[in-house]
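Duplicate of earlier report; Type II secretion system protein D input re-posted below.
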Amino acid sequence: MSNPAAAAALDAAGGSSLEGQVYVVANSDTNSLMVMTASKNFDRVKEIIDDLDRPLPQVLIKVLIAEVTYDRSLDLGTEFSILNLGADAKGSVFTKFGVDQGAGMVVSLVEKDVTAALTALQKVGKLDVLSRPYILGSENQRAQITVGQRVPFITNTRTTETGQTINTIQYQDVGIILNVTPKINPEGLVILDVSPEISALTGTTVPISETVNAPVFAKRSATSRVAIQDGQTIVIGGLMEDRKTEEVKKVPLLGDIPLLGLLFRKTATNTTKTELLIFLTPHVAKQPGDLQEFSAGTLEGTSIVNKAVTPGAFEKHLKGMERGGPAAPAVNP
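Output:
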């Protein structure tokens, strides 16, 4: 056989029962096999190929990315994540899922539906749903979603003999990047290799030449492997952020008077603790037609608790994630 991989696959499927010489050529571009052998082997070859030609299971993963801004009265202490707190804070909604995953990441199983989980989270702080994307991936194939923006920056600069300046520009994905590789074991468990990454501009730069500075990025990432049942939901937490904001309190009208207005307004810098939570719910489709069986409600996403979420533009969230940059002012008359 001219292609070792094709030969091995054909032999494993019973190709050794064929008589005479057999030549197999695999074409990955067209996803096809060309088999040259005696005509008496035709039926057996067709049977083997039909057995090999099975569609890979697909996994539709519902993703909900939320941010919790904790009330100042809530003391997380050394628990790092709301998912580690006791039942008084979150009821019986979350169950600790194994051990902490490192880099401060915590994985918990959502015992009830996601709406109940969001209701519980609402009790401990302001809840903001940043994105509700979907990932449709094949088994053992990595899928990626990016919620954010591509930031251009100069990585190198040079001057030609004629005095022309040439810059080398690269683009960096900034925001929330989630890599998921689904696998399905014989028992029907969905194994997810999950790698969340959160990055943001710090507001500072480093010089790369006499005239060019490059931005500095802050990045937090972690890797975890979890196994859950089809349709169950896990939540990844522990990705914390201390955010500084400036709050301006002033007397209406008088606080806007140039110079004199300084006597009628006060600026305070507040630090709030936020946590990014990523909910993942896999749905297995063993046949392509199974995807059509998902109800409209499943494809539309999780219903959001009334007043539990304050939808915000991702640009505002990204600005708040900046470390070392100017604080975002919040004016309260």
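Residues 76-80, 85-92, 97-103, 301-333 have pLDDT under 50 and may be disordered.

Merging into the original ticket.
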